[in-house]
Amino acid sequence: MSKNILIVDDSASVRQVVSMTLKGAGYNVIEAIDGRDGIAKLDGKKIHLIISDVNMPNMDGISMVKEVKQMANYKFTPIIMLTTEGAEEKKRQGQAAGAKAWIVKPFEPAKMLQAVSMLVLP
């Protein structure tokens, strides 16, 4: 059974690249266009990992992480932030909210897959 990974990013091209990378490694991918859409996709199915952008309309990534961590079914779901945001302050906010890793775009697919394989739930 392949593992479900939720990608949350307002950029269709980023979702496409991340999705292709993950599918190529055998993961099942669910896409969301912003934090609010990401929360809506958490409808009870098992999600093994979430990869989220930080800066998005409607609900940003850090707000979404905080909300996910309040959800009983998903509070232990690991979250990787994938963002152009490299500022230490943002990273601290992300970690404080519950993000497990921080990958800065443009990313190397191999590095991202390495982080995914280390963090994805069994």
Automatic annotation (TrEMBL):
<dbReference type="InterPro" id="IPR001789">
    <property type="entry name" value="Sig_transdc_resp-reg_receiver"/>
</dbReference>
<dbReference type="Pfam" id="PF00072">
    <property type="entry name" value="Response_reg"/>
</dbReference>
<feature type="domain" description="Response regulatory">
    <location>
        <begin position="4"/>
        <end position="120"/>
    </location>
</feature>
<dbReference type="InterPro" id="IPR011006">
    <property type="entry name" value="CheY-like_superfamily"/>
</dbReference>
<protein>
    <submittedName>
        <fullName>Two-component system response regulator</fullName>
    </submittedName>
</protein>
<feature type="modified residue" description="4-aspartylphosphate">
    <location>
        <position position="53"/>
    </location>
</feature>
<dbReference type="GO" id="GO:0000160">
    <property type="term" value="P:phosphorelay signal transduction system"/>
</dbReference>
<keyword id="KW-0597">Phosphoprotein</keyword>
<dbReference type="InterPro" id="IPR050595">
    <property type="entry name" value="Bact_response_regulator"/>
</dbReference>
